[in-house]
Amino acid sequence: MFSHLLSTISVIQGVLSVYNSALHSKLRALDAELVLKSSVGGAATVRDGNLLPELLREFKTDLVRDWQMCRQLIVCEIEIAVARNSRAQHLGIGGTNNRWFGNLDYGIGFDIDGQLQALARAKSYQSIMPAQLQYVKQPKLKFSARLIRSIKKCLRRPKV
């Protein structure tokens, strides 16, 4: 399976991501193992070195961002192939696009392939999940005067 993905890099003009981000939409299926996307992040993305001079020529700054690179790929009519099932996992927390729980990035279709990987995932979740409370604002509950009167009225009723 993985060898098919790597052999694909020449067919798809040199851009392949083995990380199928949940936050980047699929355009269409390329084959049973690959989908095409209009954008990818930098995680687990391989670019043919021969493409880089052409792609980087258009940048006016030393700071190259993922989305700038993807936009230039579109201009150059270069498709971005992505593994349908992620071969790498990346839990996006923090950063530009992953600030809120419920909208975190993760690799679609990533399978655990061994006991050590399962243990690593379990340990990471034990750290990540409790930490989310640091980032989520607890809602302040505001009750209307009418609701408070209604609750008090219910509490005063004799118990049957």
**Class per helix and strand makeup:** alpha+beta
- Into which percentage range does the β-strand content fall? 5-15%
Give the overall silhouette.
Answer: elongated
Q: Alpha-carbon distance between the termini?
A: 68 Å
Low-confidence stretches: none
Keywords:
single chain, 5 strands, 160 residues, 34% helix, five-stranded mixed beta sheet, alpha+beta, 5 helices
What's this model, at a glance?
The protein has 160 residues and is an alpha+beta fold. It is built from five helices and five strands. It has helices at 2-11, 52-56, 66-75, 115-131, 145-156; strands at 15-17, 26-29, 34-37, 45-47, 80-83.
Q: How would you characterize this protein structure?
A:
The chain is built from 5 helices and 5 strands, in the order αββββααβαα. The chain has helices at residues 2-11, 52-56, 66-75, 115-131, 145-156, and strands spanning 15-17, 26-29, 34-37, 45-47, 80-83. The termini are far apart.
Task: Give the topology.
Layout: H1 2-11, E1 15-17, E2 26-29, E3 34-37, E4 45-47, H2 52-56, H3 66-75, E5 80-83, H4 115-131, H5 145-156
Parallel strand pairs: 1-5
Antiparallel strand pairs: 1-4, 2-3, 3-5
